[in-house]
Specification:
The chain is an alpha+beta fold. It folds into 2 domains: 261 residues, Zn peptidases (Aminopeptidase, 3-Layer(aba) Sandwich); 110 residues, Alpha-Beta Plaits (2-Layer Sandwich). It contains 10 helices and 17 strands.
Length: 378
């Protein structure tokens, strides 16, 4: 059914977004944001329950989950799950939203804005408010506001999805033009490799040492760092070695990540990295310890995916052009699909995310709420 654009209160939505921006909620510090979202839902008569995932994630808050019964002619339909994350990246302390004359919203330039993902949080809340005040019948709805999404989706990963009966999920966490969605997201694994050698005095008896850094450097020089191929990236972002300039380093630690749109290719590249390090270590009598964590598993949205078809119908009713994109980031949808549910990550108005130049704008924020409301009423 076509939606009524007049039912989204643009002024109220913008004020809510600015209010949420003013709350500090860097990853693992989402407690105050969770309290604000809980209070906003309570005003709508919706009870949000905080789970106990904080013990696993290390956050000072858990994920928020709520169930909303269906109404009217749609009360017996299957529920849909709506997701947004409460955390922001750093620098995110002391954020302030500044509304410019053309409707653009920015921070003051010293912090991120937090449009990632507060445009989604505020749009979900406004959509629910609009539905209630207009008395619109809707199917059963589920809401999940997660913690630590920016930290490899730790919050969603720790959530007990057996609490959710929805077969379709929608997360609003893709930075692209409105109407877009992530057609694919990658496998993402992080790794740590430790090379162990033997310490010795660098001046008196360097020949008695086994230089762990030497083996690590020779191995790293052989890796396809950057774009390993057209669908895989490899990066070593941290290197630690040695204890003093006059000691042959007996330990070198390298930490990095691999992303690939093909899960098996990510695992194969990791094994290649390990093999190269072991080979170089053995040449000089060193040894290697390695550890990996698979945070995300690659998926691809097919044309007949139920969540995608529902989204495309809403876009059509709103007169919005749809498009897809390859997303080399990740989202909570990655967790959902790994568990066998249908779901898509939808673009919302956040531009320059993860930078102090991040922006959103009033008109697209209202359109985002329209899209969310359309899905809730679909």
């Amino acid at each position: 059914m076509p939606t009524n654009h007049n039912s989204i209160n643009e002024k109220r939505l913008t004020a809510l977004f600015c209010q949420l921006v003013s709350i500090d909620s860097e990853s693992f510090h989402e407690k105050e944001m969770a309290e604000a979202v809980t209070a906003a839902l309570k005003e709508l008569g919706i009870t949000a329950v905080m789970d106990d995932s904080a013990a696993e994630t290390g956050s000072n808050a858990g994920n928020l989950f709520a169930k909303i019964p269906g109404t009217g002619s749609q009360k017996d339909k299957e529920p849909l799950l709506f997701m947004a994350h409460m955390d922001t990246v750093a620098p995110g302390k002391g954020k302030k939203a500044i509304i410019h004359e053309d409707g653009t919203i920015t921070s003051d330039g010293t912090t991120v804005l937090g449009a990632d993902d507060l445009t989604a949080v505020s749009s979900i809340l406004e959509a629910l408010t609009s539905i209630q005040e207009n008395g619109l019948p809707h199917r059963p709805l589920e809401l999940l506001f997660t913690t630590a999404e920016e930290a490899y989706t730790k919050g969603a990963t720790a959530f007990d999805f057996s609490k959710s009966q929805a077969k379709e999920a929608f997360a609003f966490d893709c930075s692209d033009k409105m109407g877009s969605y992530s057609q694919t997201e990658p496998t993402l694994l992080s790794f740590t490799i430790e090379v162990h050698g033997r310490a010795a005095h660098a001046g008196f008896e360097p020949e008695k040492g086994i230089n762990a850094l030497l083996a690590a450097a020779r191995a790293a020089a052989q890796l396809p760092l950057g774009r390993a191929d057209d669908h895989t990236t490899l990066n070593i972002g941290r290197v630690e070695a040695g204890t003093a300039t006059n000691i042959v380093p007996e330990r070198a630690v390298l930490s990095g990540e691999i992303r690939s749109l093909v899960h098996e290719d990510a695992l194969a590249l990791y094994q290649r990295v390990v093999d190269i390090f072991k080979k170089e270590a053995e040449k000089i009598g060193a040894s290697v310890q390695e550890k990996k964590i698979v945070h995300l598993t690659a998926y691809r949205i097919e044309k007949n995916d139920p969540a995608l078809l529902r989204y495309q119908k809403v876009l059509h009713d709103l007169g919005v052009s749809g498009s897809s994109r390859v997303n080399f980031g990740g989202s909570d949808i990655n967790v959902v699909r790994r568990l066998g549910k249908d779901g898509i990550c939808i673009a919302n108005p956040m531009y320059g995310a993860h930078t102090t130049h991040e922006t959103t704008n009033v008109k697209e924020l209202a359109l985002m709420a329209e899209i969310v409301r359309g899905l809730m009423l679909s």
